[in-house]
Amino acid sequence: MEAEALRADVATDRLTSALRAYWQADAGRWLHAAKTALAVLMATWLSMRLELSAPRTAMVSVVILMMHQHSGMVLARGFYRAAGMLVGNSAALMLFHAFPQERVLFFAGLSVWIGLCVAGAAYYRNYQSYGFVLSGYATCIAAVPSISNPYAIFDNVVVSLSEVSVGILCAGLVSGLVFPQRVKAMLLGAGRQHLTSFIGFIRQAVGGGESGDALGLAHLRLMGERAQLESLRSATVFEDPEMRANNALMIRLNHDFLDAVARFHSIHQLQARVAKVADHRAGAALHALFERLLAILPNAEPGTRLSLAQVHDLHAGLQTLRAELPAHIMSTRTSLSDASPATRDRFSAGALFFEDGMADLLAFTGNFIAIRSQHFPGTAPTSDNRPDKLPNSANRAFAIASGVRAAVATVACSWLWIASGWNNGGSALIAATIAIALYSVMPQPTTVARHMLIGCLTAWVAGMAFNFVILPRVDGFPLLAVCLAPIILAGSYLGTFPATATIGLGFGIYFCFLTNLTNPALYNPVGYLDAGLATLMGIGMASLAFATIVPSGSRWLADRYLRQLRALVASRVCYGSLRGLRLTFESSIRDFVQYAGTRAGSGRFSRETLLNWSFATLEIGLAVIDIREAVLRHVMPGPWQEQQDLLLAAISGLFRNPSTQALEQALSAIDQVINETAASVDWAGGASGALTAGPARVRAQLQVIRLTLLDSAFPLVDSLAGAATHPV
Fold first, then answer.
1. Domain extents in the chain
2. Which phi and psi (to 5°) does residue 699 adopt?
3. 119 vs 125, 132, 142, 286, 410, CA distance in Å?
4. pLDDT score of 250
5. Are 12 and 18 in contact (CB under 8 A)?
6. In the chain, what's the furthest Cα-to-Cα distance?
7. C-alpha pair distances (Å), 283 with each of 270, 272, 299, 560
8. 3-class SS at 395?
9. Is the pTM of this model over 0.90?
10. Can you tell me the distance from the alpha carbon of 121 to that of 406, in angstroms, rounded to the nearest whole number?
């Protein structure tokens, strides 16, 4: 008996420990699900209290807004949802005004409008994208129910805006007041994790031991983390007055990151290419220089976060190292005075990258400390020191393709509705519009489409049981809330897991949409089944459009991305205005790297090939920008303008029309300019003055371009046989 009791006690303890561990891990998820259910019930009650005809719009608004657990994100999405609904409903009024008696023209105009909105959603970032999403399907939600009765359009717009406002109000209140989770805390924590990853990346870059592929993947992860931080930053301005007042400082932090990560990646690539050409003296000199930085970088394990004290120590060490750099560089340059000009130029290039990277890293850590120490220098930036906003550099072809998909799906659903006379054809159109809008902002629309179909089908079945088994037995709102809450709770909980987030979102949206609580209540099983079938058909139509019309993984789209990348170097980098050029270029590379990271397969458009393209283009583009900036700051020798024109024309021609002949012309122009500047470089004179002087800086950057073009990993041309005449 004692043994049995002991075994029972052990089993009980194990169960208790398991339950405790489960609760510690999932308490936050259940809390968020409960808050979502509370907000949905509040929106339902308030809509009925105000005698709004269909509370489902308010319920759907809450579900979409509460897909994020942090109050700042809810407020940000709420703001742009309100703006999008206002624009979308205004568009509905204008469409009815323009085509009051012409269904075909009306649907044509609606399709064009939705296509433009979806294209805008695919082109812009963060919550601006969400605003475009709402502008599209809000028009459809307001306009479609009024097709048979155009005179009711104004009433529908007023009711729709009222219901959305109720949903935004309830979601904002619950998220902000009931156990609120602040974006600021998440931003600061994720920022510390990101800095740890960034320091690890720098160690990999300057250490020289990692392969280019491994560093490329690390670069890709960093870009993804930074994009997430930018999304959090844009949300904090809605939540925290202090962070809003110092938004400029956080933008500068992002600029410093983009500059630094580009410089240190170039350092790694330069080391690898110096090793390929067996320039041991340049390689040893660069390694000795970089070891000084490795000595002060904190050793942080992956998954850990650097403490603020460690960042302070790093910042102080960087300041000391930067002050000592000129003397070290001078002594190294003196020791290399008997080396070949190419060796000296390669060291100069590495030293230049290192100095610039050190400056960027020093600025990054300084701003990082300022944000976390609540000490904000320059809290009121002037027009002179205000940082430029991160430019939008999304691929236009991708945005246009998304818009075309949306327009085609809208046209198809509209035609089906007109041709068949189907009573619930409007439901199919609305469902297709909502699905298309959501797909356009998702990184993997095919997976999202499948999950949305699963969520909708499950919601259809659950809604059927709720509408015709539970709801007829419900009397009064308290009992309705008791019956409705577990269903919303289950969908919201499912949405807290990354693997099932879209399923949970689809379930929540379409359960509220299909259940269609009305005032007064209507019980129509045939109509319900018909509406569910129409919704599934609309989602299927949207999924088919995304799967067949320029899918995100298509070779054509990858080719468009490559063309845009090459055109950026051929036009903007070589001939565009230098104002804001570096930031625009680095932002474009970031977008391309993130796109390349989603690719699979092999050949010309594989992930590896596209990443090689992006990194090599980054190095060449930044080198050209540095050359152009150096020419503006320093006096260049002889007929420099002619040499610069020849150089830029050759590089622009190579990127505009890649070929072996164009490669030969570019290498010849580089060699000619290097020879022309040889007499103007005082290698042994001065500490950093000679290194940063115009001719020396130009020569160093030309060596970077030259090594990159001669690297077999650079897939600019299919054959590099013609480059054999150019010795390394």
1. 2-181+393-441+445-548, 183-213+240-372, 555-725
2. -60, -45
3. 12, 8, 20, 47, 14
4. 79
5. no
6. 103
7. 9, 9, 24, 38
8. coil
9. no
10. 11
